[in-house]
Amino acid sequence: MFRLLSTRPGHYLLLTLVSAALTLPNLGGPSLWDVDEGRNAEAAREMLESDNWIVPTFNYELRVDKPALLYWLQIAAYRWFGINEFAARLPSALAAWVTVCCVYELGRAMFSAATGVLAGLALASAGMFCAAAHFANPDALLTATSTLNLTTFWLGHVGGWRWWPIPAAAFAGLAFLSKGPVGLVLPAAIIVLYLLLTRGLWRALSVHWLLGLGVFLLVTVPWFALVTVETKGTFPITFFLRHNVERFLAPMEKHHGPIIYYPVVLFLGFVPWSAFLPAALRHAWRCRLPDEPAGERPESAPHRPGLFLSIWAGVYVLFFTCSQTKLPNYVLPAYPVLALATAWFLDSWRQGRWPLADGWLRASLVLLAGMGMVAALVCVVASGVVPLRVLRGHAFPEALSWTPLGLIPLLGAWLGVRCLRRQQRTEALSAVAVGNILFVGILATGIISAVEPHKAPRSLVERNHLCQTDREIRLAAYDYFQPSLVFYGRRQVEVLHDELVLRSLLQGPFPAYVFVPATTWERLRPRMPADCRVLDQRRDFYVNRDVVVVSNR
Questions:
Q1: Is the pTM of this model over 0.85?
Q2: Mean pLDDT per segment of 10 residues, for the chain of length 553 residues?
Q3: Can you list the domains of the chain with their CATH numbers?
Q4: Among 451, 454, 455, 408, residue whose Cα is nearest residue 131
């Protein structure tokens, strides 16, 4: 068994088992998170229902936010596993596994097999990356396809395989179909910048680049052409101008942030492994790369993994820092760089290649222990035991029982320090890795249940049997709407803004069920039909209000 784990198949087996353990348990347990999960899962369901794989719709109206690749994969999962949360999230979980495997191959090619394995484990158990693997949106898919693109380039360029532009272009096409132009523009910028800085661009140019362009067009043009025709040009115009150009030039939906937004996001999102990021960045800055010949100027080295990784991270951070709309998930494709840099530092320390590493590692272990204590404190604060204004009424009492979760990083750091004192470096890394994997795995599969009792849509629909596809009923929402209501109701939800329209609906001949905040209904009740009644009530933490279901039956 130990001999197997020291081989490439053994490494893939280990990474697959860890990725599966971190993503698959309870993947379909929590209800859909609004708003993105609700919209994406429902868009795929409506495409499956209508047997239309070209035009995405949500609530039976055109949806122009994203291309169709995620929806196609969700449709395939629906056919295999049924229309449920597990199937909606499965493409993201599989995409995360693909990314982990790519990072392993990059680490193996750039540094060593041990670095590749550790980088894969660090990426799989990084907080934000693991969260993306549990989320039904295109970010994990974009990260996987973009990483496949860059991995293909690196392995092909280093190995002298001149055909690499063709598969790389195919992956760029899939990335384009995942989330749009960023799937092409940013990886292409990374590759071109690297080749320019290493003076290898003209040598790398060949007819294969033209063949790659043809493959890219073959992957992307058919669907975009068909959706353009079907929507009479509405989809491409709105998608490219509003959801790409305008999103870059101006903040949308109040998603903005300062210039340090993404460095902070990357540090927090890489928890608990971000405890080692300061040391990893210091190591990358100070140490000579293993393939860089001694005595030569850096620019004369033929293959410079440190430069490539720096450009990779820098392009994503700089581009989205310039973008006026900012969201944490935008820089998810940069997380493989953090994993590789961290693994390179830790493996260099394990092998004694960096004389100053012991001091930096002790500091990192102290920081890791501090993260455990902060995690415990967050659970206490989130539970509402300590009343704070910052919660704004959003308290989750169930979080208090998860306070001991913070002991896991603390224990991992303590074991790491003990092993460090005994000069047991491999054992120290093993203790830290196991602790981090357990911490994130329990966080991903367990603590999320503390929020579930405070989400309203699935509970209100299921408890009141509102998914009635065999009879004619009306579902509506007034002064309240969550996209997952459409997914769970399996029919259009009318969004009402006028009291007269609401009254008319409740007076109509069909059974009507309206989702409305409890305080709003108290105000409206005197002016509504006398035979209306409240069927159910549930707290929704999104709006921090109780939501009721009102019916005329």
A1: yes
A2: 69 95 92 93 96 95 95 97 97 98 96 95 96 96 98 92 93 97 96 90 82 95 96 93 86 83 95 94 70 39 81 96 92 97 92 77 92 89 72 73 89 90 88 94 81 91 92 94 96 94 92 95 92 92 91 86
A3: 2-286+304-354 (no CATH), 457-551 (3.40.190)
A4: 451
